[in-house]
């Protein structure tokens, strides 16, 4: 297994490649985005078919749909508790669809295509993702072995499922390792898209004067790429990962906010839409009509619910090493948001950014 320094080195190398790819002209990036979409869809269909077909032993439908892993090493023996904690991975998977909004300035007819992108991303993830999970779960016949840290994949469940499917059939797990390559490439493309999305957010905030040194971050190069924001995003991602060298607890505390933080950000516009702007909001060409307010409230209440669920302990007894730091991390981020809002308000009262400083870029 790689040391933490080797992992950081690989992480830094991948971020460098992602930043280089995002520094390319927008047209090239669009082609890479299409390749990413095709790879993810085709790759998922390939894996959801090949793994259960290759696996010589199949789990029963009763195990797939009714079994709860209450006999675990985390001392969590309640089926409802296991179910609610298990929602975390589903919520994390159906995220990132806001990239369509961040890329709206580079999208033709973004007032329609942006929302269509969000809806299609969620719909495809829901259907295809569920099928993918079914394919993998039917290949699990020994749950304890799959989760055992001493197995061939060091406790990484999905990797072990792939490996066992081919090893049990052909006597070698090489095919399973190749299947992991499909996942690795998909993750690589996701990393590239994350840098794209983050750089556009940094560009938009700095364009409006809401970041320190905004004039520097919102500048674009000759290819109309926010080059400084791209490398800022990659640099911050690397710096954040460096905390894992000193303390895994600190690193886990920082990344524990990932899912809840994203969904709070998603829910805030809906909350403002159904409260402060309920009577003054002007709908665009894509809207939910009379159901918009109802769906907005459902979304807000659901996010409030998962914020509570995902703040619960994930292991008992609770210690400093396994404490769920999500509530602490969320509180810290809210403090930063408030400070950022105060900073933005100070700039706002100074006056807006001059038109000569704003250089929008389009596809």
Automatic annotation (TrEMBL):
Any idea which UniProt keywords this protein has? Answer: Membrane, Transmembrane, Transmembrane helix, Transport
What are the TM regions of this chain, as residue ranges? 12-31, 37-55, 116-140, 170-191, 225-243, 249-268, 288-312, 324-343
> Which InterPro entries does the protein's record reference?
AA/rel_permease1 (IPR002293)
Superkingdom of origin: Eukaryota
Give a Gene Ontology cellular component term annotated to this protein.
Answer: membrane
The Gene Ontology terms for molecular function here are: gamma-aminobutyric acid transmembrane transporter activity; L-alanine transmembrane transporter activity; L-glutamate transmembrane transporter activity; L-lysine transmembrane transporter activity
Places the protein is found: Membrane
Major subcellular site:
membrane
What protein name applies here?
Answer: Amino-acid permease BAT1 homolog
Question: Species name for this entry?
Answer: Ceratopteris richardii (Triangle waterfern)
